[in-house]
Amino acid sequence: MLKAAIFDMDGLLVDSEPFWQRAQVEVFSSLGVKISQQDTLETMGLRIDHIVDLWFERQPWQGPNCQEVNDLITKRVEALVQEHKPMLPGVLEAIQTCQELGLKIALASSSPMSLIHATLDALSLTEAFSALFSAEHLRFGKPHPEVYLNAADALGVEPHLCVAFEDSLNGLLAVKAARMKSIAVPEAQHRDDLRWSIADRKLNSLLEVNKALITGL
Question: How far apart are CA 66 and CA 68, in angstroms?
Answer without folding.
Answer: 5
